[in-house]
Amino acid sequence: DRGPPSPSPGDTSVLAGLYGPVEVKGSKELPDRAALEVLLRPKVGLPGVMERSREQLLRRTCETVVLGVLHPRTAITLVLQVLSDAGSLLSCCLNAACMGLLDAGLPLASLFCGITCALDPHGAIILDPTTRQEQDARAVLTFAIDSAERKVLTATTRGSCSVEEMQQCLVAAQRAADTIFQFYRDSVRRKYSKS
To answer: What pLDDT digit, counting tens, does each position of 133-144 carry?
Structure first.
């Protein structure tokens, strides 16, 4: 079941494919919940260390909202294929992951979205930075924010910033999350109004 490409900054786009829940036996079987696997495929070449690290963060984020106890002893595989990367790739992957879960009709405790913030050399916050803005930034932060209480599910930081700057980025990300959650609602409404 292939979901729609996610909302993306500029020309970054990721395609999500979700497979399962399917019955599973052996080492992957979890007796009390579904086993969730996330595979991140780069635009070209084979997945490397960066993709593996992002897969773990994406899996941890998805596991916090997927009600896996409703599908014990099954496996769910989420495949994210990078189509183009013009910056803010991790947040685009998070949004594609959530849209994929939502589109597949899996039971979720809440939705989540990804927001990337960059701090430029002067300390100004740039939301959804481009690749160039990320390269020039003093710090790049990506937050996965849940739709219920706007709390942070997972976060990653590259570079250096003060605690105050991190707080400012988080507030900006929480505000921006409202736009993405509205996009999700509109997308679902459009999908079901066609059927």
So the answer is: 999 999 999 999
